[in-house]
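Q: What would this chain look like folded?
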Amino acid sequence: MLIELKDYKHLFIGNDATLALQEALRACAGKPGSILKLGGGTLHFYKEFAFEKEYYISNNDYSKKSIIFPLIGMKDITIDGEGAELFFHGTVLPFVIDHSEDITIKNLSVDYPHPFFFQACITAADENNLELTYDTEEFSAEVRNDEIVFFSKSDGWEIAKDKLLACECEADTKAPSAYISPYFAYFKDADDGSFLSGMYRYVKPLQLAPGKIRLTGEIKHKHTVGNMWVCTFAGRENPGIFGNRSKNILIENVTLYHTASMGVICQLCENVTMEKLRTVIRPDSGRYLSVNADSTHFVNCTGAIRYESCTFTNMLDDAGNTHGNYTRFVQVLDAHSLLTTFGHFQQKGINLYDKGDQVHIVDNLSMQALATLTVKDSLLLSGDYIRLEFEEELPVMQNGYVIENFTKMPELYINNCVCGHNRPRGFLPGTWRKTVITNNTFFNMMCGLHFTGDANDWFESGPVNDVLVKGNNFKNSAYTGGAAIIISPHIKGDAAPFHKNIKIEENTFELHEERFLSAQYAENLIMRNNKFIKNLAFPSHNKVGENGISLKNCKNISAELPEKI
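A: My prediction, written as structure tokens:
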């Protein structure tokens, strides 16, 4: 069934297409095979007629969402923008795919006329002062009561912040600076106890004039006059595309010029394919940032996650992160049942477990699995607690132990993608199932690939067990220092290897000096037939180890140095 948005033109309210779109989507509901064509051109969407629903979104913030495209409970639906440029106004979430299957979104772009980030030109700087000059129309902000208030009068929102994640971006490349690390500009006097507080810079804001703010205090380094200071302020309430417990999602030829949080985030989904997905700056916009957080993020998904010919640049977090979430043991209820809670506040409210799932009980310090159990029943009691019942008896439980869903992890394929000029990394593969990373180009601020995992801070699970890294170009990857590829699970003390069976071959490392691989707690790693191109135009940093490879607490490693050409 073909449905065209133009047939609902009479429901446009001024330039607001939201009500017309809601009616067009209603016509698609219950009709598998429907194709909704948006007709190209420029479309604007506002909050007033949006669909509302509360969602817990992993690694994002809980709230009631104002959803423009609510693809909820739908089957075999295609949204074809036909080249449409979609502009979203205010605190809205563009796309939700929830309990749906066979959903395609293609041939469109997403942007916000008034973005949820702030940029200002650095017009004066020393180690204790930073003067920022900005466009008051697109990046409206002013200092009030020792906070900076960001707002849009036309879109009707206002956000006050006393802590801002900021970085300096170079005027010519628009990339985060190679010489100044990102930090939090913190306007209070005392540490708030966050494990990220080492990144705090204690400063005070002062409004010098309309469009001019000075930060004074513990900056610790001198910014470069003429570069741009960029920060986010919106929290993580509204990603661009959110998938929840859905199956067979295709995102094809979609450009996310800006989203208020992540670009694409899917949890508990099966089979997600991205072909020519882009998170990039709109050409000639003058902006320095695309999406506010990760370009893509996948949590406890299944089937296969596939990237093909995607581009991720100028985002303020990673290109892609695939992992599971550990939940924390709270209390034994009986011989087969326990109460568990969430490790990080942005993981709350999501029942990660289904009957029949295999889970591991994991020691949070060594990150080693102590027992394997089968879920008999799982009940989300509240946003804070899950009750789990198992077929088998529980082992002896201790405070600090975490639970990992071993079943809900996907295969991962990343091919022919480009990512860089972002803070901080490229891809974070975190699944024990087959992972293939081929023919990609990395020019990230930090490492191009990071194999991590921890059960104490972020609570992101995912030891890898079958990885091929082949034919990639680490072209000035980790341009602020460190290694192009890092393997570093957050393990405390001596422990057995965590990540296993990684093969790194036929890649090119184009760097100023030897900074190829830093690995900890790895086993059965092979590195061979790689090449090193020395490029003195790139920033210089210390070598990794003595010759570009550093290995600690590893077993059965065969790591050959790349051939210098």
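The radius of gyration is 24 Å.
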